[in-house]
Known about the structure:
Blueprint: E1 4-12, E2 17-19, E3 26-28, H1 31-37, E4 46-57, H2 64-77, E5 83-87, H3 93-103, E6 104-105, E7 111-114, H4 127-139, E8 141-142, E9 145-146, E10 151-155, E11 158-161, E12 166-167, E13 176-177, E14 185-187, E15 191-193, E16 207-208, E17 216-220, H5 227-234, E18 241-246, H6 256-267, E19 271-276, H7 289-297, E20 300-301, H8 307-319, H9 324-331
Parallel strand pairs: 1-4, 1-5, 5-7, 7-10, 17-18, 18-19, 19-20
Antiparallel strand pairs: 2-3, 6-16, 8-9, 10-11, 11-14, 12-13, 14-15
Helix pairs in contact: 2-3, 3-8, 5-6
This protein binds aspartic acid.
Aspartic acid binds next to loops.
Amino acid sequence: MPKTKVLLIYTGGTIGMMQDAKTGALKPFNFKSLTNQIPELNKFDVELSSISFKHPIDSSDMHPDVWIELATIIESNYNKVDGFVILHGSDTMSFTASALSFMLQNLSKPVILTGSQLPIGVIRTDGKENLITAIEIASSKQNGKPIINEVCIYFEYKLYRGNRTIKYNSLHFDAFKSPNYPPLAEAGVEIKYNYNYLNKPSKNKLLVSKTLDNDIAVLKLFPGISKKITSAIINTHGIKALIIETFGSGNASTQPWFINELQSAIKKGIVVLNITQCLEGEVVQGKYATSTQLKEIGVISGGDMTFEAAITKLMFLFGKQLNLKEIKINLQKNMCGEMK
Ligand code: ASP
């Protein structure tokens, strides 16, 4: 039996920072010293290979161009390995996982993002467990086929659907939540998969999208938001889509100036997408009178999508140069498990 092959892609983030023996300063590691930090990796019955970004980044510097680079690496190695583990800073990991879930259509192999809150060289690091179990999951098979066929985040004993996650804690090891979808697996003595919630493998060939459009604006509502600021954001030159982050189940101010601003944007061909500020639950336009008008003027409901999924889905759909009608249809359609 040939060994299962996993490709590790190192983008940066806290996990890869090591304390310099002399100065004590945190610096990025190279992959050669990874096995020194985690000798357990040699015990895996898995053939591990690695690709490291030439200049590893803190994930706050993440950019759609880097997502394209990651998707290209996955595409060119897709037939060579059984699964992928991406080491990534936790700050924007949910954005990257969401973006990749749209860009890598028809997956039938695991793409697992992981990282840590403490560097791998620090004695109390959470990075070792995260990395070791992420590799274990990326190499796990059932009847010779990968168990996971989607883009996921593994963090602190839980495997999540990537495009359902948010980073919600900057201090705890348990840094992620998947508010509207159950974990795909939990790692204890055994890794227990939640089989009913996993994406099925695609029978079609992997399709990689490498064009993303970031001409998107975001308007987070708050009581007292001014007409001046609202209007400046909505009328930003060149925007193609506007996410309005609304209250509760998709509610917003009913003041005529606010509705008029949105309506004229929609008439100009700007897609307006309604995402709730609540961490759990969903947008239901028309449930309250304060969202009925939004529905009437053509605001699209983002349902139970996270903000991270919504913004990357817009980048993906506009990158495909679809017409407005197709974009609006796809926005409301579950494309890869990102919404109900
Ligand atoms: N600032 C770091 C990053 O996102 C935090 C982390 O890795 O957890 O790259």
